[in-house]
Structure formats: structure tokens, C-alpha cells
Amino acid sequence: MLIRVSTYLYQRPKLVLSLLLGPPLIYMVVVYLGSLFNLLVYSFYYLESFTGLIVREFTLSTYAQIFEPANRDIFIRTAGMAMAVTIADALIAFPLAYYIARFSSPRLKTWLIIAVTIPLWSSYLVRVYAWKLILAQEGILSWFIRLIRLDGVLEWLLSFESIGGSSLALSPIGMFIVFAYIWLPYMIIPIQTALERVPNSLLEASSDLGAKPLQTFRTVILPLSFPGVVAGSIFTFSLTLGDFIVPLALGNSKFFIGQAVYSYQGTAGNIPLAAAMTMGPVVIMIIYLLVARRLGAFDAL
Amino acid sequence: MTDQSKPAIQFENVSRHFGAVKAVDHADIEIHDGEFFSLLGPSGSGKTTCLRMIAGFDKPTEGRIYLYGQDVSDLPPFERNVNTVFQDYALFPHMNVGDNIAYGLMVKGVSKPERLKRVDEILDLVQLKGYGDRKPSQLSGGQRQRVALARALINHPKVLLLDEPLGALDLKLRQQMQVELKAIQQRVGITFIFVTHDQEEALTMSDRIALFNQGRIEQVGSPSEIYEHPASAFVAGFVGTSNLISGELAKRVSGKMGTFSIRPEKIHLGSVDVNVSPDSYSADGVVRDVIYLGLYTRYLVQLDGGGEVMVIEQNLKTTSMDVLKIKGQRARLHWKKEHTHEVGG
Asked: What is the pTM of this model?
């Protein structure tokens, strides 16, 4: 009986494919793309401000609200933060990934990769609130900064209106530190993978042809591992763009996109505006991914 | 610094140990200016380690290496005027053929117009005119091989190192490249050091060969010296095929104790009543197997005193019908005494 079923299926590869692929595909289309489409539809409705009810009529007025100065600033602020976090993570991750990929012994490499990914095992929320304590006025970081007598520099930084605040725990600088920490593993791993794929013989060839180590780095290692940096930046950029926990925990009254969406769909009940604001990061990420694909980033994933 | 009258490469008692493994063990080599010199040996015999030490990718544990009289043992690769053609070609995948070839000039700061001019010249030499804008991934194995060669030669190195460069090519292309490489070497006049495990390739191309076995050099000599006068049983066995006879059999055939080698093509196969001239040795036996190979036939003969000998005879007048009839019959083998080589105890 089983043999007959096997033979029947063996002769119909397309049936096997649809049986295997069908359920996850239905899930993807209905739940994932369906909810995204639902968002898209809602973003073209609007909230009647007098009654507080959603009017299900096609309009672009909700999108027009996004370009009001207050909302526009939210987009600029969030994209700026995402960019800063991405650049900082790339700068921190590259040397680490380089060491893991090229210099560590196989044994050490295993331990280093575990060390890089171990924070991902604990709850993200716990880590964010742990950082809130670290960054607090009486926290260990402020204590350390006072110890090395750089508290003047910190106060000077916090005095800037756009990035500062009453303490590290309530400022964009603090958010930047926490974002950079939280997404760092997502940058290290793709860069390390890309670096491991650069064959040793290419580095030997470069050196053999007369290139000094720095020239080899600039002309061979960096261009060949750059797709890994772009791949990592897809994570750090998009995760920062959509996050609302970190701004909620460490931010001040200046909203970030995730936070704005959270409050519009919640207390304000303005689901159309929340949906329209969500479309912002979606569009930004689609453009980003198209550019990343051109740079060969998907080969490094 | 360097002196053209000195040997191109000189190894002075060079050893390279990896932990307890002696990859290269007390090697002394002298490679002359303008020579096509092959490092031949089975895998793991130390030939590639020698090449990597000349290139500077590896440092000797002991001993010194001289390039035209200059001690280069401790110099990094980018300070040695030698270039390498890698086994996997090691072309930069993100650069086109022209940029790959110009790489050595680029890092030395040669101007762009000068680079383009020299790339054009060298593409001509390796017969790849018009391929400058292609990516390495768009080339065939043989073409990549030529690009790798051009990328090394454009720097006018004092010595060119080639690490099994023909290993990945199919037989026809390999034979064609052997002839071409030799022609290019004669044209540019640079010392070539060629690593290979293929004895036929080494015999075809080299002026001289160093034969490696387990980190040690067994023999250095011209192809004919190595083939005709193997210095050890290993050489006799590795380069071409050889019959080794030793012990009682050797004593009965030649009257001397020891181990001797005879090439299979030097042995004549005759009927048992044939008279053997006094300048030859002879031995009788039974033809156990006949393998007809078109151009020649291989016979395996079981000698009366024990031991088996391979004989190769060209099919100048014989056909497959003729030779196959010999199987199972008795035969007398004879060969000139001068073709018998003592290869040690």
C-alpha cells in the first residue's frame, strides 16, 4: 500500500511540490501578505475627528497628515537614528568579525560565535530595561564616566537639545547606545560569513603581487566583504526603524515611528494614520532592499 | 642587493617543520638563472611548501633562502621580486581581467595609461586580446590560467613560481598549455619554478627536475638523467615505471647482490631458444598476462626464480592477434647490462 502511494507520488513531482509547499504558502499569503494588504487598505481610510469613527472611503488625506511637520520630524528622527546605529554597528562589528573569521582558531571561533549570539537567548525586553539601569543617573556607566573624569563631556553632550536629555537613560544618546548593542549580533554574523568566503589564496595573491597589508585590505578584503556589511545593515536599519520598545523605555516626548504607530492605533484609535505611518518604513525598506540586492548583499546571507 | 651571476634561487639546508611533521627536511637546491625547474613529487612530499617559502607565504624553520644572492628568508611576499601562478588561479572575482592583470602595477603606483599599454601587450602574449573587460567568472579554465600567468608576468618578476597550474585542465588542454608555457618561458627568459605531481609533465617541460619524497630531495637532474639513471628505488618507481629486482633473483641474473631497476621498454621478449649476447643479462619465465594497448603491448612475465617483470614492446609489426597468442607461453627476457641500474641496498 505504502509502496503504491510512493510510486504514485514519484510519478507526479508537481503534486508532491504542491503538497509540501501548499500549507506554508497559504500561511504566507493569507496571514502575512493579507495583514500587510489590510494595512494598506486602512491607510487609505480616514478618521472623522468629530465622531472619532473610521470612515471607509478612499482618501489620500491620511497620507497628507504624514507630511505635517510633527510627523515628518518623526520620520527624519527615526531614519537618522537607524542610519547612525547602522554605521556604528558596522564599525564595531567589522574588526570583531574579521578577528573571528581570519585569526581565531577553530575552537576559539566556536566560543566567540556563541558569545556573540548568547545575548539573543535572553528576552529583549529584559536587556532593554537592564540598560535603563546601566544608563541611569546613578547607574554604573555614569559612575564610570565620573571615575575617568569625563562627566563634563557627558554633560556637554546631554545639553544638546536634539540628542540630549536629563540623563543618559532619557536621551537619544542612550537610545543610540542600546540600539547599537541590541542589534550588534545581526551585523557581526553576516560580515563574518562574508569574510570567511574570501579565499586565503586571494590575499596571498595580492601580497605576492606587491600589495602591502593595508592595500590588500582596501582593494581585496573590503570590496569582497562589503556585501556582508550591506546584509547586516538590512537588519540593523529595519529593526531600528520599526522598534517601539527602546524609544518607549528610554525616549522622551519626541516620538519615533514605532512609538507613534503604537500610540495612534492604541489610545488615539486612529488606525488609518497608524497604517499610513507603517507604510513609511515598508517603502523605505523596499527601496533599501533593491539597492542592497544591486550591491550583492543577498549572496552574503 | 641581487647579483645576476648568483643562482636564481638557492636553498641552504632549508627545513620547514609543522609541529612534528617535517614538511621539508634539510633541502639544498640551486636553481640557475633562466632555467625551467620542476619540483616533482607525490602529494605531501614538500614541493609546495618549498614553493611557498620562495614566495614568502611560509618561513623556513631552519636554513636560508637566497634570491640572486640576496637573503630573502625573512622578507614578506610583497618585498620579494617573485610572482606566483596559483593552483586555483586566485583571480580577484570583483575585478575584470584587465584590472586583475594590472593589479601588481596598480599597487606599485604605475600610471593608468602605462598600465593599460602593458596590459594590452601582455594580453597579446597570452593570446587573450580583447578579453580585458570580461570578469573572471566569464572565462573558461584555460583562459583563467592565461590571465593568472599574465598577471604574474606583467611585473617582470626575477623568478616565476607555478603551483600545479595545469592540474584543473583536461588532458588535451593540459598538453597544449605545456607546450605554450615552455614557449612563453623561452620568450620572456624568466626563471620558472614549476610544482607538479605529474612526472610526464615534469619530463616534458623541465630543464632540470628535483624529485621530492617525504620532505627530502631524492635526486636533482635533467629529465634524461632522472629517467635513465635513477638514484634510488623511489625515483625509479615514481618517474615512469620500473622493474625492481633484488635478492636471490638479482644475484642469479647479474651475479651481484643489491637492488636493480630496469625500464620495461628496455627489455626484449624472445623465445626460449634465443641466444643472448655477452653484453646482456637474461632471465626465463612464463608470460602470465598480455595487455594490448594499440601503440604498444604490455606483458607481465612470471620469472622462474620468483618475481614478476613488466615488459613493453611497440607493435611495429605485430597485431593484437599475434601478441595475444603469446599468453601462457615460456619466454626469455634479455636486456643490455648498461640499462640495469643499481638503486641501493
From this structure: 0.78
